[in-house]
Specification:
Cupin_2, Jelly Rolls, mainly beta, two-stranded antiparallel ribbon, RmlC_Cupin_sf, Cupin type-2 domain-containing protein
């Protein structure tokens, strides 16, 4: 199986099963009914603009690898905010439950491995 991770995300169950999920116009509106609702998701996201909202994943850590570009990942654990600068090749593990959002300094691409059950968003 070959995929472009920008157009087909992968749901990974941690037991060896991988389920391809084509990214459609309604992907994010229907994600709770998809295999990603109970699994980790592997995807590549174009990073062209600052994120307009914060997100957090209360049930699992998130692994982010910046493939190209330069971003700053803002993180808020409820007590303090920190900034992690990411350049091409940098890997960041966002702890479970930590709010985070990206500020794009140079456009690029971000690979994410996310355990998404319970994901929440708030305005920036």
């Amino acid at each position: 199986m070959r995929f472009d991770l920008e157009t087909t995300y992968l749901a990974i169950d941690g037991k060896g099963e991988v389920i391809p999920m084509p990214v459609t116009d309604t992907f994010w509106q229907t994600i709770d009914a998809s295999p990603a609702a109970t699994r980790s998701m592997l995807a590549v996201y174009p990073m062209t603009a600052d994120w307009v909202s914060w997100e957090r994943h209360p049930e699992g850590e998130e692994v982010l690898v910046l493939l190209e570009g330069h971003i700053e990942m803002l993180m808020d654990d409820g007590n303090r905010q920190t900034v992690a600068e990411m350049r091409a090749g940098t890997t960041l593990v966002v702890p479970a439950g930590v709010w985070h959002r990206a500020l794009v300094r140079t456009p690029g691409r971000l690979l994410g491995l996310t355990y998404g059950p319970g994901t929440d968003h708030r305005p920036a």
